[in-house]
Write a structure and sequence with these properties.
With about 300 residues, this protein is α+β, with helices and mostly antiparallel strands. It has seven helices and four strands, in the order αββααβααβαα.
């Protein structure tokens, strides 16, 4: 009976996850004996000590650094005010006011300042050895398509898998939580359940592939802490995004150059728009997950 219940739970969970678009993000970390030598790093950061020389990111808008710019999709953000706090203050297709998680990680590892999008028309061949981003905004999790073993056979040995976020705390979800705009506990419980199963599965894969290292990056709890106690990190607003009203401002619906509600200082906000955290919030969470990456 217990096994039947487990199978039923697993099927229900898969259906739920596809509905709420839980983000499962992969970051392949390459050491110098796999892809490139340290001398291939940009000269200005070559002095930084790091065992990693390459990062390849897969996922959705949390990691997308511009792949959607030329794709036939409405999930695009290559227009103001996106990128307002980015280098040069220009929109680059990053779903943020500035850098996104993948940029922050590659920068913190001392590899390069930004992780370029694979579909960037300005991508150079010399960018490839140190990593590129394959993430695409609005991509979902389909158990029929991803395969860690497809990655393993290509040579990936250090893979970081980012957990689901506390989805019920995003402004888009909070707006359905009543007048107080509280986190939707059901959505968060679904994410927690998924994270638990994902972590267990990674333990199994690590046993089956002893020469590989899969790391589970828990971003759920750091982001939950920001949502529960934003004042501890100096945030002033969390129930709405800096850009828009906290409803459907993702892409061009309300987060656009003509929106009069966009805040003047995104660093005071946990979220940039209705779904995506601000650059500052992502940096705080990245600093905690980075410890898991560098300790492996």
């Amino acid at each position: 009976m217990g096994r039947q219940y487990e199978n039923l739970l697993s099927k229900c969970l898969k259906a739920v996850l596809l509905f709420v678009q839980v983000r499962v993000l992969l970051v392949c970390l390459c050491t110098s004996n796999v892809v490139a030598e340290a001398g291939d790093r940009p000269a200005e950061i070559n002095r930084m000590s790091s065992p990693f020389v390459g990062v390849f990111a897969f996922g959705d808008s949390v990691l997308d650094t511009g792949n959607n710019n030329d794709l036939p999709t409405v999930a695009r953000c290559n227009f103001p005010p996106y990128g307002r706090d980015f280098i040069g203050g220009i929109p680059t297709g990053r779903f943020s006011n500035g850098k996104v998680y993948s940029d922050i990680i590659v920068e913190a590892l001392g590899i390069k300042h930004l992780l370029p999008a694979y579909l960037d028309p300005n991508l150079h061949s010399e960018d490839l050895p140190t990593g590129v981003c394959f993430a695409s905004g609005n991509s979902g999790y389909d158990p029929l398509t991803p395969s860690l073993v497809d990655l393993y056979s290509l040579g990936a040995r250090r893979i970081a898998i980012i957990s689901a976020f506390p989805l019920g705390c995003a402004p888009l979800e909070r707006n359905g939580g009543g007048l107080l705009g509280e986190c939707l506990e059901l959505q968060n419980q679904r994410a927690k359940m998924f994270n638990s199963l994902l972590s267990s599965e990674l333990d199994t894969i690590n046993r089956d592939f002893p020469d590989a290292k899969l790391v589970f990056l828990d971003v759920y709890h750091p982001f939950l802490e920001l949502n529960q106690h934003p004042e501890n990190s100096g945030f002033e607003v969390l129930k709405i995004g800096c850009c828009g009203t906290g409803t459907f401002e993702v892409t061009s619906f309300l987060c656009n150059p003509w929106n009069p509600f966009t805040c003047s200082n995104a660093s005071n906000y946990v979220y940039w728009d209705a779904i995506h955290p601000s650059e500052r919030a992502q940096r705080i969470v990245a600093s905690q997950t980075l410890k898991l990456i560098t300790s492996t």
